[in-house]
Design brief:
The protein is an alpha+beta fold. 43% of the residues lie in helices and 17% in strands. It folds into 2 domains: 71 residues; 119 residues, Roll (Mannose-Binding Protein A, Chain A), CATH 3.10.100.10. Strands 1, 2, 3, 4, 5, 6, 7 and 8 form an 8-stranded mixed sheet that branches. The chain is elongated, with a radius of gyration of 43 Å. The mean pLDDT is 84. Keywords: Coiled coil.
């Protein structure tokens, strides 16, 4: 009888061990399954990251090529601009490669003070004449601005009737100012400006030199000015 109990106890213990081992195996299977899923996710993420890395590398290479292209274009533009400036101020003489430099660009005139250069636009075509704003923009495209008054300026031949040339003087909030922001301190008005005429034009006439205030939307010839070199 005692032997039977001993056998039963041993059998129960063995059965318990089997249950424990079975439970442990189930836990290990779940862990293995979780690890398998995790590894699969990691591989998928790694594949995505690899693809993204390759895409970024391609974009980086494309940007580097674009930067290099822009750098070359900037260098070429700089050389072209330098060449234009050289040709404008130091044109070649005759068929020779020699250059003769001037304080003003080709086509511009040196002011009596030798401090600035001016360009007189003398178009007779009404559609080529400009408003005050348009004239100023044309000068800025030439790296210049509308002229401040220059006494003794050369307009060319004296016409049968006087022409108006926009200059860099405008009335803002009731105050006449030059395009550089400085106030008008000395004036040469032919007639007292009307309230509706806020832009100044130099009148081409034999004598005396003078200004006329006109509506800014009017069409006139104009004069550009830049510093001499």
């Amino acid at each position: 009888m005692a032997k039977l109990r001993e056998n039963q106890t041993a059998a129960a213990a063995a059965n318990q061990n089997v249950l424990c081992l079975s439970s442990a195996n189930d836990s290990l299977r779940r862990v293995l399954s979780d690890q398998t899923v995790l590894i699969s996710d990691l591989r998928q993420n790694n594949s995505i990251l690899t693809s993204e890395s390759q895409q970024l590398q391609m974009e980086k290479s494309a940007l580097e090529r674009q930067v290099e292209k822009l750098r070359r274009e900037r260098t070429e533009l700089s050389l072209t601009r330098t060449q234009r400036i050289l040709d404008a101020y130091c044109p070649k003489t005759g068929d020779k490669e020699e250059r003769r430099c001037n304080p003003c660009q080709r086509g511009w005139l040196l002011s009596p003070s030798n401090s600035s250069c001016y360009l007189v636009i003398t178009t007779n075509n009404y559609y080529e004449k400009k408003t005050w704003e348009e004239a100023g923009e044309d000068c800025r495209q030439r790296n210049a601005d509308l002229v401040e008054f220059i006494r003794g300026i050369s307009y060319g031949s004296t016409p049968r009737r006087p022409y108006s040339y926009w200059i860099g003087l405008r009335r803002t909030s009731g105050v006449w100012k030059w395009v550089d922001g400085s106030d008008l301190t000395e004036s040469y008005w032919i007639h007292r400006p009307y309230d509706s005429t806020d832009c100044a034009a130099s009148v081409q006439r034999s004598s005396p030199e003078g200004w006329r205030a006109e509506e800014c939307v009017g069409k006139n010839r104009w004069i550009c000015e830049m510093k001499a070199v």
